[in-house]
Write a structure and sequence with these properties.
Length: 151
């Protein structure tokens, strides 16, 4: 592993831990050249791709990091831990893979993400929904908040 700080070609593993129910290896590494430490994550590459069908019909490989970034953006400056976000994304990804279908629409992923965020944090849910459902006016926000408050 190349050092991200100084570019040295070799680093050494200082500590290894299993996380995410044994699905991910977390490694603390140290660069012998500059003595900086950093963390890497090793994850099993799933056999066969999971394809996402975009609104315009284009297909692209499922990218869990995009989903995590969407959750993080919705939860920005809120009291939501990265572990909570990671667990929600893992649940969505596991469910989609368990269906056995090789393709899933962004609409399905978006609804699952919105439902997960509704359970995690109401403000994060409204933030996500405003982008996902493309709110264009204050009435859209008001209607969504009223429905959320009624539940």
């Amino acid at each position: 592993m190349r050092c991200p700080f100084c570019g040295a070609p070799e680093t050494r593993v200082v500590e290894t831990r299993s996380s995410d129910e044994g699905r991910v290896n977390r490694r603390r590494r140290e660069c012998p050249a500059c003595s900086n430490r950093f963390t890497t994550y090793e994850r099993l590459e799933e056999k066969g791709y999971l394809w996402v069908i975009k609104k315009n019909g284009r297909r692209e490989a499922f990218d869990r990091d995009k989903l995590i970034k969407g959750f993080q953006h919705a939860c920005e400056k809120l009291d939501v831990s990265i572990d909570t976000i990671d667990a929600a994304v893992r649940h969505i990804e596991d469910y989609i893979r368990s269906t056995g279908q090789g393709e899933v629409s962004t609409a399905v992923i978006g609804e699952m993400a919105a439902n997960a965020l509704r359970d995690i944090n109401k403000v994060a849910y409204v933030r996500f929904a405003s982008v996902y459902r493309e709110f264009t006016d204050i009435e859209s926000f008001t209607k969504e908040i009223a429905q959320l408050s009624a539940k």
